[in-house]
Amino acid sequence: MDHPDRIALSRRGFLGMAAGGMALAGTGAPARAQKIPTSARIVILGAGAAGTTMARRLVERLDGATITIVDARKRHLYQPGFTLIAAGLKPANYAVSSTAEWLPKGVEWIEEAAAEIDPEANRIVTAGGKTVAYDFLILATGLKLDWDAVEGFDMNLVGTNGIGAVYAGPEQAAATWGAMNRFTDEGGKAVFFRPATEMKCAGAPLKYTFLTDDYARRKGSRGRVEVHYHAHAGALFSVPIVNEKVRMLFDDRGVKTQYNHVIKAIDPGKKILTFATPEGDIETDYDFTNVIPPMVAPDVLRNSPLPWQGGPWINEGWAEVNQETMRHVRYPNVFAVGDCAGVPKGKTAASVKWQVPVAEDHLIADIEDRLSPATYNGYTSCPMITRVGRAMLIEFDYKNNLVESFPGVIAPLEELWISWLMKEVALKATYNAMLRGKA
Ligand SMILES: Cc1cc2nc3c(=O)[nH]c(=O)nc-3n(C[C@H](O)[C@H](O)[C@H](O)COP(=O)(O)OP(=O)(O)OC[C@H]3O[C@@H](n4cnc5c(N)ncnc54)[C@H](O)[C@@H]3O)c2cc1C
Fold first, then answer.
1. Which entry of 58, 92, 260, 414 is 20 to 30 Å from 3 by CA?
2. Which atom from ligand 1 is nearest to the alpha carbon of 173?
3. Whose CA is nearest to atom 6 of ligand 1?
4. What is the arithmetic mean of pLDDT over 312-333?
5. Alpha-carbon distance 91 to 94, whole Å?
6. What is the pTM of this model?
């Protein structure tokens, strides 16, 4: 592929810079100090991006702590890779490694799910009935994809009947590519949407819409393809300036947009999607779709006393934490990081990079009996793919300010090859460095 705007950068320089992409913005914790002696018992629920990063960093900073991580999942999934798999650019195993390989020495892994959290008694109970007491608890359980909330959806059908499900996992992302590849050969009507709940990587549904349009153009079938995007609310993206840019690009590319359409049901036999709208339910036919279900906190968190007790997330179950410190508002020895945290932005791996050091420093400050100055400013980043070989590196904070990690090099609202490389090449290296506590 010819890239006229290629910027001359050595691979090493580029990767170093990309690591900065998840590292330059935000308000960080103070520099590392010597190991701190402690006998604290720290339990981490979840060994995904946030839990593994936290475990690694705590092992490196504490001496004598008992650190236990609880997670039944044997596979570590690099989820940002799912979009690339679903675009036929990477194989399914690109996103798969093992949980064990990332966990540092000095951490005990209980290979079970946590079933119960009792923050009054400072203990958790595993699915197998094991009770583990803690002095500090880190919630890092990610979120639950609520497939049952899309009536008629059947995971076994992904890859058939024009059904894609990029979020479901690497195998389903690969099956989605099969369906998208066939669709863009044959033509028809593609209908895309996102759920009305909070969600991880809110840019991903838009990216897949752009990619489907792009494949149809490359194959010369765009004239036989209709592309529709049904937004759950009155905008395509929560940051107004980004919303406007995406709206203009969708207009340019002939993507037809509908607003205030919330997915309710799919009929795979008849190929019909049902959306709730302010005017009542509407049905629309499709030949290809990417089902993205509502997202909620995992049951173990939802069924505990730890979620928000009121406000917009009352039904979603996210942990009630202070948005600057990631510390639980009612249980100060509990922190939440990653997707399960009840903060207004930040359900991305890029946010994990900035949340974990803040929570870590507050926890260690408690051990040292000092106050931590570390704060998280809501930094999140979304390499918004707009076609194969081009993306916009969109980074923003709680206030919807665009935060540029590379001012003068990467303009956030321009479709650039270098921003594409951030997603396609550098993000995984940066993510892996984060898991090792190096980014
Ligand atoms: C399609 C897609 C594209 C994305 N693209 C990007 C991107 O471009 N850039 C970006 O920064 N981010 C992206 N993300 C988001 C990113 O992957 C997540 O935000 C990140 O993985 C969150 O980390 P986490 O640790 O909170 O959750 P996860 O990494 O999901 O880990 C959660 C862990 O908790 C475990 N768990 C669940 N329940 C329990 C329980 N009861 N007990 C114990 N353990 C439990 C799970 O087994 C899992 O191992 C994307 C995600 C998807 C799905």
1. 92
2. 1
3. 80
4. 97
5. 6
6. 0.94
